[in-house]
Write a structure and sequence with these properties.
The structure is a single chain. The protein is an alpha/beta fold and 200 residues long. The protein folds into 2 domains: 120 residues, 3-Layer(aba) Sandwich (Rossmann fold), CATH 3.40.50; 64 residues, Arc Repressor Mutant, subunit A. 48% of the residues lie in helices and 14% in strands. The protein is built from 9 helices and 5 strands, in the order βαβαβαβαβααααα. A 5-stranded parallel beta sheet has the order 2-1-3-4-5, covered by helices on one side. α6 crosses α8 and α7 crosses α8. The longest helix has 17 residues. It is globular.
Length: 200
């Protein structure tokens, strides 16, 4: 019985690289490209939130040099998908460490698939708590996410680090099984954590 392919969003500036990755995924069958973004310019947040993806493959060079260290945070603000860095140049080690996995432009197709699989399995291993009740702090974070707050805003409100916010968001996703901001908003409404009046 064939399982459905996992969805991949590519955020890479080179259409040649994007089409090459898409060809690899088509040939090997385990992953399929759900969308391609050439950059993280205006409007990309909306597109990112609207594309259901299990994995985001991003070339960190789509961020300006000054913003690269926070690129992973930007992704977390807009998606709960696994984030994999595509290394096409000389990226700093700190930048690459922020991602769930990294692969090189020069890796073999089977190596790329193996690394994507490992990143997803790492998420699932820590995700075995699905169905567990949210902690009080996770509920507070969920309310903030549902209201459209960014990770930095949430961190400032609770006087915690952005990385702590990201960890809470990952735990919320694991426990609820919901990956999208829209889905989490519906969850918050259905569980009376917020009401419709909060959005007026």
């Amino acid at each position: 019985m064939k399982t459905s392919s996992r969805k991949v969003l590519l955020i890479v500036p080179s259409i040649v690289v994007a089409k090459g990755l898409e060809s690899i995924f088509n040939d090997l069958g385990e992953f399929e490209v759900a969308g391609i973004l050439p950059d993280v310019g205006r409007g990309s947040e909306t597109r990112l939130r609207n594309i259901e993806a299990d994995v985001i493959i991003i070339d960190p060079c789509v961020f300006s040099y000054a913003e690269r260290a926070n690129g992973r945070n930007w992704l977390s603000d807009n998606s709960d998908a696994v984030a994999v860095a595509l290394q096409t140049g000389l990226e700093g080690e700190e930048t690459l460490k922020a991602y769930d996995e990294t692969f090189s432009l020069y890796d073999e197709p089977t190596t790329i698939i193996r690394k994507l699989r490992a990143a997803l399995e790492g998420r699932q291993e820590s995700g075995k708590t699905e169905g567990e009740e949210l902690s009080a702090r996770e509920k507070e974070i969920l309310v903030c996410v549902a209201k459209g707050m960014l990770n930095k805003e949430i961190a400032d409100q609770f006087n915690i680090s952005i990385y702590t916010v990201i960890t809470h968001r990952k735990n919320i996703t694991r426990k609820t099984g919901i990956k999208t901001v829209a889905g989490l908003t519906v969850y918050a409404l259905l569980n009376n954590l917020i009401d419709v009046g909060d959005f007026e």
